[in-house]
């Protein structure tokens, strides 16, 4: 994992842990020693019996691509670091599965929930239902479409992600005299909306750039392959691809190579997949740059939930800490790629 990412994540966890200390809660190890009583939710929960462990649900998407596989890997390790909590862990293949998981967690009597939504809109009412039961919610990465549901929202700076990667693409296209661009988008969510909206605002400042097409590839390698195959058939000349995701990009690269058009274009993905970073580091002409977006942010959310829920009075603690925490993004180029390349990483 990149040192800059780790520093950002550690600082997020430190905010929560430091706030708990400020409230005078006894801490040990990871900052999660449970007191004998207190409210479980953000003020609506009941008293916990002395000696009873707090129960926290963790709901994340299934590992249908590299980034979500990384999410699951980091989630499990964060839970292992907090054995004093009774964890209820579930992965979902889509919104309906995840909504069912949340209902099951409510039946099991969770005190807290860490959720990375499969999609933002359909999970919003489900999260509101969980919140209405006095459950403390830490929302990671994909936000809800209504404000105020989550007690803490931890995300990467997706607007900066879109601006930074799009600016690199646009500047490089201008420098090389390229004009024809295609855009590949992700899963319907606040993440995708922020990235694409910010990116298109940048591209609009370059009148010479023609956006030939914009198609959803769902942050999925197979979809990236299929969508790019269609685009290659549809468009005779493509100069660059703004994929804004590494799984999409890898599938798109496969399609381009199979079509024998790899010398025609280059593309920029994002999220710091080790294969993509290695290509940047090796100066592969098809992948000139990348953007950081670590799946390990789920671990920070879990650590926060463990510390805050186990304090017994997270609502009080939140008065002393930010409720919206954002992790910065970094542009990865051949000059700094070695600092972001970790071959032993799961992602």
Question: TL;DR?
Answer:
By secondary structure, this protein is α/β, with parallel strands linked by helices.
Shape: elongated
Q: What structural category characterises the helix and strand content? A: alpha/beta
What spatial order of strands do you see in the largest sheet? 2-1-3-4-5-11
Oligomer: single chain
Name of the level-1 CATH class of the largest domain = Alpha Beta
Stretches where pLDDT falls below 50 for ≥5 residues? 1-47
CATH architecture of the largest domain: 3-Layer(aba) Sandwich
Q: What is the rounded distance between the termini?
A: 9 Å
**Annotation field: number of helices:** 11
Number of domains: 2
Beta strand count: 12
Largest sheet: 6 strands, parallel
Helix content: 40-55%
What is the CATH fold-level name of the largest domain? Rossmann fold
Question: CATH superfamily of the largest domain, called what?
Answer: Response regulator
Descriptive key words:
347 residues; alpha/beta; Rossmann fold; four-stranded parallel sheet; disordered N terminus
Could you characterize the architecture of this molecule?
The protein is α/β, with parallel strands linked by helices. The protein has 2 domains: 3-156 and 295-329, Response regulator (Rossmann fold, 3-Layer(aba) Sandwich); 158-270, 3-Layer(aba) Sandwich (Rossmann fold), CATH 3.40.50.2300. The protein is 42% helix and 16% strand. The chain is built from 11 helices and 12 strands. The protein has helices spanning 3-22, 66-80, 95-107, 120-132, 158-176, 190-203, 221-234, 246-258, 274-281, 297-310, 314-317, and strands at 55-61, 86-92, 112-115, 136-140, 152-156, 180-185, 210-216, 240-242, 266-268, 290-291, 324-327, 331-332. The strands form 3 sheets. It has a 6-stranded parallel sheet, with helices on both faces. Strands 7-6-8-9 form a 4-stranded parallel sheet, sandwiched between helices. Strands 10-12 form a two-stranded antiparallel ribbon. The termini are close together. Mean pLDDT is 87; it is low at 1-47.
């Amino acid at each position: 994992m990149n040192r800059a990412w780790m520093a950002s994540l550690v600082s997020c966890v430190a905010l929560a842990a430091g706030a708990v200390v400020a409230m005078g809660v006894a801490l040990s190890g990871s900052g999660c020693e449970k007191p004998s009583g207190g409210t479980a939710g953000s003020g609506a929960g009941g008293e916990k019996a002395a000696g009873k462990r707090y129960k926290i649900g963790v709901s994340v998407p299934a590992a249908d691509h590299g980034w979500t596989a990384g999410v699951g890997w980091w989630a499990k390790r964060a839970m292992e670091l907090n054995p004093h909590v009774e964890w209820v862990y579930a992965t979902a293949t889509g919104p309906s599965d995840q909504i069912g998981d949340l209902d099951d967690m409510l039946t099991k009597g969770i005190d807290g929930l860490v959720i990375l939504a499969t999609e933002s809109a359909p999970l919003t009412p489900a999260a509101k239902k969980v919140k209405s039961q006095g459950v403390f919610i830490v929302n990671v990465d994909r936000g809800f479409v209504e404000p105020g549901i989550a007690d803490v929202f931890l995300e990467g700076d997706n607007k900066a992600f879109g601006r930074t990667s799009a600016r690199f693409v646009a500047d490089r296209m201008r420098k090389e005299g390229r004009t024809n661009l295609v855009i590949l988008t992700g899963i319907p969510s606040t993440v995708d909306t922020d990235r694409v909206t910010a990116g298109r605002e940048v591209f609009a400042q370059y009148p010479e750039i023609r956006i030939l097409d914009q198609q959803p590839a769902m942050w999925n390698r197979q979809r990236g392959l299929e969508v790019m195959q269609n685009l290659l058939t549809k468009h005779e000349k493509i100069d660059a691809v703004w994929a804004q995701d590494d799984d999409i990009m890898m599938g798109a690269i496969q399609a381009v190579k199979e079509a024998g058009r790899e010398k025609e274009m280059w593309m920029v993905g994002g999220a710091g997949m080790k294969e993509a970073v290695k290509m940047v580091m090796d100066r592969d002409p098809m992948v000139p740059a990348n953007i950081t977006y670590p799946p390990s942010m789920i671990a920070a959310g879990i650590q926060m939930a463990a510390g805050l829920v186990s304090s017994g009075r997270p609502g009080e603690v939140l008065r002393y800490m930010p409720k919206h925490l954002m992790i910065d993004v970094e542009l990865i180029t051949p000059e700094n790629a070695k600092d972001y390349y970790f071959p032993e990483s799961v992602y």
